[in-house]
Amino acid sequence: MDNGIKLKQALDVSKVLSEGAEFHVDKEFLGDYYGEELFFDGDYSSADEDEESSTQQTTPWSGSFDELRKKMQPISQLIYKRITKEGSGKCQSNNIRVTIEYNAFQEHELRPFDSTKLRKVPCRFILGAGDVLPGLDQAVQTMLVGEEAEFLISYKLLYGEVGCPPRIKPKADGLFVIKLISFVDLEANVACASEPDHAERQSYATAKETVAEIRKVAKESFQRGMITNAIEKYKAAVNILHKCQLKNDAEQKEQKETLTALYTSLAVCYNRKLQPKAACNAVNEIRRLCDINHNAKVLYQEGKALIELGDYDRAQVRLKRAEQLMPGDENIKATLKALHIKYEKYHQEEKSIWTRAIGMAAKKQEQSVDELKSFTDAIRGTINMFIGDASCTTLPLPGHLSEQEIRILHELADEFNLKLTAHLNHNKKQYTFTK
């Protein structure tokens, strides 16, 4: 089943029926992954096989399904099977990623109601993950690689009693003609990454194929919102590539390009999980491989992470450079705009804190009890605004704080269950609150 593309806004059905609708695709969703792949699937069949398959788009059985069922072997009470070409290997199970071709027919109908061959795109899915119709999933689990078979599947495992009018009739059983092209054992691939001795013995050619399959699964997980699973897959792919044997400079060059893409994908995932430090670590790994000042996508991801960390100056530098490389990118422009709003907001809050807490006196004097109370009240008010802003995770604080003011910050951090951290920014100590 093909993965859909997310829309920016939901559709109002009543308006669609009366006025129509204009679709706006979430470009960041595509931008994070579109065009990323460095490995490509090979051809699955020869030219002769393609020509032969084009003539097989009509039903192989013109009689009733009751008659066909008598010529098949029962897999269960709801699925019957007839093998037309033997395969090899082992039967499939859950957590296996399969690639299949199929035509699906209703009873007494000549043309298929669903066909990967007509779409000219194989169907890829993970067994047991609920990505396809239950009947199709269960049928493929009985097949071997290279096997071709016909399955008569009950409507109970397809479209149910209602069907899908007008194309699928109510209570419509289906005849599926399926070819299992290939499969990948995802657990075995990840296991390879966790076994150093095995990984070290892998040639680059073998590692390349394994990584290509893992990346496909990772992208599918990301598109389905399973970000943690995607991160695990990408990390497994990175581990395999780092430990494979390289024969020449060409393999080393391709390995670096692929590692760059994998670490970029990890940065995307970490930013989606609001883990900016992990995203920055992924970008630092890319710095070991190439000059990121010529990679707008990496600069963009680092800029987003630095915003979450409250490092607005460095974030602006990264995003401005990304904008120079891709001046028309809407995501970069939107992020720069959001950065400007946050920067101005906290700049005003910083100014307000100083104005309200210690005044604008030119001469430095020992802080009175009233001044410390004013400072405490000002910080507490800013914290309440910070906690109420769900889009912010870090609150920068003014510099040049006295020991008494720093002690107050620690007390407020405990009171509001926040984390108070200090770091050097342009050789000046900068304090921040983090949720």
From TrEMBL:
Residues 95-184 form the PPIase FKBP-type domain. GO terms for biological process: piRNA processing; spermatogenesis. Its EC number is 5.2.1.8. Keywords: Isomerase, Repeat, Rotamase, TPR repeat. One of its GO terms (molecular function) is Hsp90 protein binding. The keyword tRNA-binding does not apply. TPR repeats lie at residues 296-329. GO terms for cellular component: cytoplasm. The keyword Repeat applies. It catalyses: [protein]-peptidylproline (omega=180) = [protein]-peptidylproline (omega=0). Belongs to the FKBP6 family. This is peptidylprolyl isomerase. It comes from Anopheles sinensis (Mosquito).
